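Q: How do we represent a protein-ligand complex in a form that can be generated token by token?
A: Start from the inputs.
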Amino acid sequence: MTFPPELLRCLVAAQRVTVLTGAGVSAESGVPTFRDAQTGLWAKFKPEELATPTAFRREPRLVWEWYAWRRQLVAKANPNPAHLALVEWEKRASSFTLITQNVDDLHVQAGTENLLRVHGSLWELSCWQACGASTWRDESVPLQTLPPSCPACRGLARPGVVWFGESLPTRELEAAAAACDCDVFLTVGTSALVYPAAGLVHEAKRRGAFTAELNLEVTPASAEVDLAIHGPADELLPNISRRITP
Ligand code: OAD
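Then emit the structure tokens for the protein with 2'-O-acetyl adenosine-5-diphosphoribose bound:
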């Protein structure tokens, strides 16, 4: 596998590295992506029936059954070489931020520390009735009750993920925007279609970062970044890591 020397040079010299990941990074771990033809979740399910506040209001049990099924899939998954390579990069870089759209927490499991989960987590729940209970973690598989309830008010609980039509968590979004002020910004395993996350690479480029995309296929970001490399993340990231390690 050969890489443009420009990328390796930039990575070796970079003080501040920011990486944005999407579902493609977890594909090798057996977690389905969203938009891949045949295997992607949105090829089999309709997002408007399962991943919107309106869908949840209409049929909370159906929505919860789908999230319970996804929790079961992810519970069996382990971090793959892509997740692990990013942990190694973090140890070496003076400043490293990993922004993920993934809700599987495989970056957490791998050991990444400076992580911004801009779309939430499958393992967190919050109160749908807004009783004021903060988000809590529940890693039980299967869930004890379906739909689960809020431990504070006993009302309906919701998955701690961002749905279509909802805002991203403010703290994470602000920190992600700040992390666009970096030397190198890599976008890995994402279709670059869902905003505002998809806009971060443009912001990083505007602020002068060297931008690169690592993805299985061409995306709308490919023509915008300084460098686009096509291949599986679990091969590309460890390979790059080996070449930039002193
Ligand atoms: P997508 O499913 O839209 O895109 C995954 C991308 O990863 C595609 O471009 C694939 O070609 C690529 N890919 C697949 N396997 C790969 C591999 N082994 N190595 C490298 N690339 C690979 O997933 P996301 O971009 O993460 O949002 O989707 C963004 C958001 O849309 C998700 O967070 C989710 C979804 O609707 C919410 O649920 C709010």
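Residues 32-76+121-161 form a domain with the SIR2/SIRT2 'Small Domain' fold (CATH 3.30.1600.10). The mean pLDDT is 95.
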